[in-house]
Amino acid sequence: MLLCDIGNSFYHFYKNGAFWKEEAYKLPNLKTKEPVYTISVNDKALKRLKEYYEVIEIAEFCSLNTGYVGLGVDRAFACMAIDDGVIVDAGTAITIDVMQGGSHLGGFVIPGFAALKGAFDSISDKLDVGVNFGVSLDMLPQNTKDAVSFGLLYPVISSIESASRGKFIHFTGGDGQFLSRFFDNSIVDELLVFKGMQKALKREGIW
Amino acid sequence: MLLCDIGNSFYHFYKNGAFWKEEAYKLPNLKTKEPVYTISVNDKALKRLKEYYEVIEIAEFCSLNTGYVGLGVDRAFACMAIDDGVIVDAGTAITIDVMQGGSHLGGFVIPGFAALKGAFDSISDKLDVGVNFGVSLDMLPQNTKDAVSFGLLYPVISSIESASRGKFIHFTGGDGQFLSRFFDNSIVDELLVFKGMQKALKREGIW
Lengths: 207, 207
Known about the structure:
The structure is a homodimer.
Chain A: E1 2-6, E2 10-15, E3 18-23, E4 36-40, H1 43-52, E5 55-57, E6 65-66, H2 73-80, E7 85-90, E8 93-100, E9 103-111, H3 113-123, H4 144-164, E10 169-172, H5 176-180, E11 186-188, H6 192-203
Parallel strand pairs in A: 1-4, 4-5, 6-9, 7-10, 10-11
Antiparallel strand pairs in A: 1-2, 2-3, 7-8, 8-9
Helix pairs in contact in A: 2-6
């Protein structure tokens, strides 16, 4: 079965243990005519996929126990894969959701690193310096490039740390691997959304 | 004596205990011909002021003990006003600097709230929701507007908290009052930069 998770910037695909992504602004070349079991937060990219492939939307199969109104389908399916812990999906936006005893307790969104970099650039040419992603977070910066790099990373990391309250963290998304390096009690799982989709499809007897 | 601190968005003035600000994109009407003792991080606005007023730049009078290379003059003068504690200047950008025993230990920069809001808007129309600045930071959000509002405030607040390590915090700048509400061990001092400028001018025998 072919699964697809359409985000703001990418189509993410999964089939037989393999996963790959393609840019969301153009039609993916799938070399297959099989049905694409799909969730999407990107209406334009979804419409494009539908024009050329048999798309089966499965958002309605999500059975997450939550009081959150308007939770994005990608977040909801990622949460469905985890019973206890924090789920951080670090892509164009970074979403942080907390699961406990199979229930979703809530979550929040922060801009991803590219958008945060854009926020610095929009303020002043003086802050439009490169980013040093290796900057130490244990020492206070001593120059502008490090001060901006620290200011890009530290708020993201300290808010994840603070919101997690010691819970185990599951990172996914393009910057998940990078972020997980700052947390001992964490793993990276690129397939989290797809695992939630699988779980839902199994419950429906489709998988 | 008339003091002026030119930031990214505003001219800030101080005279005889009064202070006021004027937008940086147009010439301020000062109704005086006296010299304007000035520091600036905004070359364009400085040039405009110089064309119509007698501007005396005093950046060179700053005698902050620091190893930081390229510290903005406004940050440097604000730090000069404090011997021990954290200085948070929350304007277009939010700068966080740490002083200990009269020495500057370093600091970092994060985008101000308007720039952070722009970062959300740039990601997706779905995140271009209003901001609820009264959102609770003690509970995980349960809808998109709260999730974005929380994601705007929480990283800023948790990084200030984490970097401060219990030190007393001096807030200044347009959003200083708002931010101070989240910190028990803090005060708001709108005049911090001007106090540093005064200190420097006194040392030079000019004040």
